[in-house]
Amino acid sequence: MSKADGEPKHRARKHERAGPLVFDYDLDAPPEKVWRAISQPAFRDRWLPRGDLAGAEPLSSSPGEEVRYRMREHEPPFLESEVTFRIMPNAIGGTRLSIVHGVTDRRLRRDPPSASNDGACMMCSACMMRAA
């Protein structure tokens, strides 16, 4: 937290056009305290309600460094996303907290459209019809 205004200093950046949102915060708390706040349910539930999570257990965790959760929206279409919390000591004796939030719901993927035929070459079919 910034001592001047009591609010965390943060910087938001977007890695790529359709990529995750990344928020960086410099906090006046030591990394061990921030780790407890993001990883232990009794503390985490105070600022990240269990209802926001698709599951109470993390998807992955590197103790003292990073924890990743799956989240689900409360309202239709109930999109799912993943949020990763990374911590490291910062230059002023506190903690750098990076929050990476990316939508992972399959319904939003931009996969190429599937073929509308059975894979046969339409031009070959047309040629075969002329020959008959």
UniProtKB/TrEMBL annotation:
Superkingdom of the source species: Bacteria
UniProt xrefs under CDD domains: SRPBCC_CalC_Aha1-like
Protein name as it appears in the record: Polyketide cyclase
Organism: Sphingomonas colocasiae
Lineage: Bacteria, Pseudomonadati, Pseudomonadota, Alphaproteobacteria, Sphingomonadales
